[in-house]
Amino acid sequence: MAKSAYYITTAIDYTNAAPHIGHAYEKVLADVIARYHRHCGREVFFLTGVDQHGQKVQQTAARQGTEPLPHVKRITALFLDLWKQLDIAYDGWIETTDEHHKTVVRDLLQRLHDDGQIYKKCHRGHYSVRQEQFVTDRDRETDGSFGEQWGEVVEFEEDNYYFRLSDHVEWLRDYLERTGDVIFPGFRKADVLNALAASEGTDLCISRPKDRLDWGIELPFDPDYVTFVWFDALTNYISGAGYRRELHTDADLKLPDFDRLWPADAHVIGKDILVPAHAIYWMIMLHAAGFTDQQMPKFLVHGWWNIRGEKMSKTTGNIVDPVQLAQRYTTDGLRYYLMRDIVSGRDADFDESRLSMLYQTELANEVGNLLNRTLNMAGRYRGGVVTAATGFDDDLNASLRAAVESCQRAYHAHMEGHELHAALEQVRAVTGAANRFAEQAAPWKLAKDDTQAARLDSVLHHLAETLVHVAAWLQPFMPGSCGRMLDQLNAAALVPGLRDLVWGLLPDGHQLGKPDPLFPRLQLEDESAGA
Ligand code: MSP
Q1: What is the structure's pLDDT at 529?
Q2: Measured distance CA(274)–CA(104) in Å, rounded
Q3: What are the Cα distances from residue 16, in Å, to 23, 93, 210, 281?
Q4: In terms of CATH, what superfamily is 352-511?
């Protein structure tokens, strides 16, 4: 079976703390892209999930006086609730404690071990008891001491397993240099090449002895160790996509056909985990496991949402809760803001007053009111029936059609190029043109003059037809509202694949539905919230 689906997957989220707006952004971004491709008529598989193992989780659970498993299950439920609330339509869900995931990780480790790619070595060095990790000379202060953050630092030696990363660095450099579109945005490739140069000669420690960390996947070739972070977490992208599904004995387990999905068309991750984790460790893991150059994934690396230029963090207490925001500004209001106010690949500043303002202006006023007044006028003047074939045309009509046609071209170019904010700008240009068209054509005046009947029909038709296009373009971004919009236009069944949208979707005699506000006035406890 050959690759036939668009495969999109995101970072799996740590389950040591509740989700914040950054997590929400990444998932909405992936969901919009997945929905876009589905609406274009492609087969899509969208995988996401949670990262449940590791030292931080073990420590947090211990501090809370609980075992790691109930702790991660509680946090996992918060993520699952959020994805439901945000209308994230994923096809596959993976938790790193899933048996099938562990099986694939162990199989991969065993094969690499058998192949001589993983070896055991004793590391002697300085160890921070407080941070539970080795420190190097690079961590020393200018006076040669280790800073306070490291607490007590002792001489320590430990046997661990190492992955022969350095054997593949040459291949990776060559692959990146001769391949154009592995990483979006392109400027990030330089970061990877620089990091590769700095990592020369270093192998990757992939184990922790169980007396230090036992909340992880046991090494298949040494029961005294668990595998540490990346071999576990990164492998989700293939274990959740059905890689080596023949290894599983559970008859109820439904996994996708890996060959239809792989390689990933969009690995959606934040900029913090590109280097070294994804661009170096993951690519080399795949290469070492026998994946060819044609089977390497493509990365979509997004920027971060900050608060007044600063990183969100628990210590500064500036964490933004997406659940509250979705309740306050609606799911689609939040989805729209998260796609509208950031350029893919760049950072943005989260600003609740902009979210509120954009909801009111660009959604309620520009889209919602256009729909409302079009349906109202069509209802009042024509019983809601669209007359497409009036024979009447003028420059005003032609310019609205031209705006729709130009958006159809630009929208796809931007969507395919991950420039989602730019695709939204194109759609906004059309709603702006349609609102101006309504003002200029003034159907309320035409309705008073019987000699203008054909012209009035053509104006109402142009408005309704434009709205069907707008609803179709915005549907990946705001599935709930646009579904309602198409229902009110009674046009859901008339919309073809997104790529096939052409002027003339509404047939002559089409019956429109009744208006119902799409973006109701916000019920804010405090009208100045976030301002
Ligand atoms: N569990 C690891 C990823 C393993 S992937 C095999 C992890 N988890 S995380 O919960 O810390 O982050 C999950 C994703 O959210 C990452 O892609 C990260 O970049 C993204 N974000 C975390 N904070 C963010 C913002 N403030 N803004 C945007 N995205 C951010 O890393």
Answers
A1: 47
A2: 23
A3: 13, 18, 20, 23
A4: Isoleucyl-tRNA Synthetase; Domain 1 (1.10.730.10)
* Number of residues that this document lists for the chain: 531
Angle between helices 331-340 and 322-329 (to 10 degrees): 110
Maximum CA extent, the chain: 95
- Using omega within 30 degrees of 0 as the cis cutoff, is the peptide bond preceding 209 cis? no
DSSP 401-461: HHHHHHHHHHHHHHHHTT-HHHHHHHHHHHHHHHHHHHHHH-HHHHTT-GGGHHHHHHHHH
* Among protein residues, the one whose CA lies closest to atom 29 of ligand 1: 22
Q: Which residue's CA is minimally distant from atom 19 of ligand 1?
A: 270
453-474 and 395-416 are packed helices; what angle lies between their axes, rounded to 10 degrees? 10
pTM of the predicted structure, to 2 decimals: 0.96
Q: In angstroms, rounded to a whole number, what is the distance separating the alpha carbons of residues 260 and 3?
A: 4
Q: How close is the Cα of 269 to the center of ligand 1, in Å?
A: 7
State both tokens at 312: 């969100």
Residue 18 in contact with ligand 1 by CB distance below 6 A: no
Position 530 confidence tier, pLDDT thresholds 50, 70, 90: very low
